[in-house]
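Our consortium's second objective concerns turning raw sequence data into structural hypotheses that experimental partners can test. To show how far this objective has progressed, the report includes one record in full. It was chosen at random from the queue rather than selected for favorable results. The single chain below, 358 residues long, was entered without modification.
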Amino acid sequence: MARFASVRARMAAPMRAARRRSLIARGVPRAGAIGSVTRRPLRRSLPARIAGIGAAVPARAVPSSEIAERLGVDERWIVTRTGVRSRYLADADDSLAELAAAAARAALADAGLEAAAIDLVLVATMAADDLTPNAAPLVAGLIGAEGAGAFDIGAACTGFLSALASAAGMVESGRSQGALVIGADLLSRLTDPGDRGTAALFADGAGAAVVVPGPRPGAEIGSILLSSTPDEQRIVHATHDQRKIRMQGQETFRLAVQQMSEVTVAAAEQAGLRLDEIDLFVYHQANARILRAVGERLGLPSERVVQSIDRYGNTSSATIPIALCDARDRGLLKPGAKVLVGAFGAGFTWGAGVIEWA
């Protein structure tokens, strides 16, 4: 959409022209069914690949100085505690579905594919425009992926990683021939503007990845480890009544550092790699202090840990794809690079996996 600024990403090799998409269905299509349904056998494939990535943010950039004035603090107070110098915030008439669709279009263009090649749309979000319908079918309609399967995934800040694992499994099993994985959140609508613990941190944005079967060109998705434990103490929560995120900062910091560190080691071992063999670490941009603490605990060189939170803030499920786009625009994603992606979110949920970039 014109009102959203795209974060550009270019794939190294263009995809072959996509075949027209057809739905995979069980049983014989019924007369009068909506759309064209074609029976086809399930096909096992090589590991799923990311063929393109893209991102989009609202038009309005807000510096930390503006937030600081409202909160009655110094700008340096915000930057020191969060690492955020600027972020993008949605206007009242902005739509999450349209923002997600803008990111999806950028990813499709990056992959050299038309929306007709997509038969599955997954949107990871906790801020859909309405309680119902979900964002995914709206996004599928906006981009022209007519008849595609579409559903939302709720795993807070781990949402994009959870959706990526789900899409990879669908593609590898042959149940999908092309999937769009989108992380999109408008956290400003779930943030108390007077809460110092969240108002300076959270922001709005969307990022997307096109997932296709091998052996097509693209970045190979390795196994993705996902885990959870119940947040019985309500350390990060938002009620239906208030619809505002409340967070115990210190406890969230401790858990995020612990779990992202542990799952990083586990994901590297699962991939048969040492940490020093991984070229880039793209974590959920929760807080600059969390990123720094994870890097220090694992002994990671700071130049190998991607940081985009200073310019985009914490956009929840959108941070990983936005950070991937940002890393490639800055020349950090090299062909053949081994990239570990990891996240920790409310719930609690967390996970990590390794992608071999191409």
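The partners drew two points from this record. Confidence is low (pLDDT under 50) at residues 8-42. The two ends are 28 Å apart (CA to CA). Both points have been shared with the crystallography group to help prioritize constructs.
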